[in-house]
Amino acid sequence: MPLQSPKSPWQIDPGTLEPYHPVLTLKPFSSNLWMFDSKIFAFPIPMLMFVVNFPTNVRTWVVKLKNGDVLLMGPCQFTDGLQKELSEVGPVKHLVSPNAMHWMWVEDWKAVYPEATFWAPYGAKEYVQMKMDKRAGKHVGPVFQKEVGDPGWPAEIELVHFPLAAPDGTPYHETVYYHVPSQVAIVIDLCIWYDMARMSGMLFKFFMKQAGLTLEG
Ligand SMILES: [Fe+2]
C-alpha cells in the first residue's frame, strides 16, 4: 500500500499532529455517506517553511447517489485498499475538486477511474488548471470536464456558493455541499479549526493560535 500518491509533492509529516485514526479506510458517517482521512502531510507553504511546517490531514467524502453511482468529494491519498473498499460501495462516477485548494490528488484518482466525470471547483476551473500545469511543469489540461453545478451535477447534492477571493484576486471560492438524503452539509474550508489536543509541535500550536484556527485560542 503506497504511503502517498505517486504524483503528490507533499511529504509525510514527522508527527506534530496526531491523525484521525483509522486513516485511509472508509468510515460510515450517515446514510449513503462515508468519509476517509489521509495520513498527515506537511504542506510546503513558502512563507512558513522556514519557521513552521504546516501539518494537516485531508478528508474525503464518499457519497452513494440514488442511482448507485459513487461521488468522491476531494479525493486525497489513493491506495489499493481504498479502491477495494469503494468497489463494494458502487462504481466511482464523479470526482470533485470541491474548492481551489483541494485538487492535489484528483489526477491520481482520475487515472484509476478514467470514466468518471472530473468536476472543477465553482468559479476556479482555469485557476486550478493553471496550478496543475505549474506543478507538472507543462500544460496538462484541460483536465476537467465540467464545473460544479454544471448540467449533469447530481441534484441530490445542493450547492451554496460563497464567492471569495484573496487580495491578489486568487479565486478561493467556497461551496457548501448539502447532501439532501442525509441532511448533511459538507463545508470544506469555509470553517477550519485545529484540535490542540492532537498537536505536539509547540511552534505549530503557537502559529495556529495566532491565526485563530483553534477553539482554545
Ligand atoms: Fe481544506
What are the SSEs and their pairings?
Blueprint (H helix, E strand, L loop, with lengths): L10 E2 L14 E4 L2 E5 L3 E2 L12 E2 L2 E6 L5 E4 L6 H8 L4 E5 L9 H7 L4 E4 L4 H12 L9 E2 L9 E6 L11 E6 L4 E3 L15 H9 L7
Parallel strand pairs: 7-8, 8-9, 9-10
Antiparallel strand pairs: 1-4, 2-3, 3-6, 4-5, 6-7, 11-12, 12-13
The site of fe (ii) ion (FE2) has 3 residues, from loops.
Assigned CATH architecture = 4-Layer Sandwich
What name goes with the CATH superfamily? Ribonuclease Z/Hydroxyacylglutathione hydrolase-like
Q: Main β-sheet: number of strands, strand sense, barrel status? A: 7 strands, mixed
Q: Which small-molecule species are bound to the chains here?
A: fe (ii) ion
Bin the helical content: 10-25%
Mean pLDDT: 87
The end-to-end distance, rounded to whole angstroms, is 37 Å
Strands, count: 13
Tell me what you see in this structure:
With 217 residues, this protein is α+β, with helices and mostly antiparallel strands. It has a single domain, classed as Ribonuclease Z/Hydroxyacylglutathione hydrolase-like (Metallo-beta-lactamase, Chain A), CATH 3.60.15.10. It is 17% helix and 24% strand. It contains four helices and 13 strands. It has helices spanning 80-87, 106-112, 125-136, 202-210; strands at residues 11-12, 27-30, 33-37, 41-42, 55-56, 59-64, 70-73, 92-96, 117-120, 146-147, 157-162, 174-179, 184-186. A seven-stranded mixed sheet has the order 2-3-6-7-8-9-10, covered by helices on one side. β9 (117-120), α3 and β10 (146-147) form a beta-alpha-beta unit. Residues 1-7 have low confidence and may be disordered. The structure holds fe (ii) ion.
